[in-house]
Amino acid sequence: MAVSPPICDFGAPWHDFSLPGVDGTIWTLDDVKGQNGTLVMFICNHCPYVQSILDRVVRDAKEMQNAGIGVVAISANDVAEYPQDGPEEMRSEARRRGFTFPYLYDESQEVARSYGAECTPDFFGYNAEGQLNYRGRFDSSTRKAGPEDARKELLEAMLLIARTGTGPEDQIPSMGCSIKWKTA
Prior knowledge:
alpha+beta; 5-stranded mixed beta sheet; 3-stranded antiparallel beta sheet; oxidoreductase activity; Thioredoxin family protein; Thioredoxin-like_sf; PRX-like1; antioxidant activity
């Protein structure tokens, strides 16, 4: 069942974290934040909504990074139920896709909860001051990739944030698989 997160809560603060990356490094928000903004995205390996855009995410992340925007991906799914979302598989996916950004594992799910992440993919775009300015979709893709010439909504928003500190007023929420929360 597809889930859509709430609309952007403009100005909401980002949340610090300390999470292991697939590269064996412990990463914090200070390590990943960019001079002109930061994109924190919650993704996973098994979700068809993520898989349909992942090559485009990698492509657009490079352009964001060139514009001084920090980019990080976090997977928070319960790997007992979804082993394909575990650290080894994450490492393989990052290598296979050529990630230029850290891919972190939130085993406790505390970081995903602090951000209010609801689905994969879920994008949180912050300005240089750490204020939320984008919580929309990547592009018009769904479980299947949209057209090659689909408007690059996330990239456009992040470049606007990098230039002006403010994201677009009109944002279409992301859509994806629910985060697979651990049962108590």
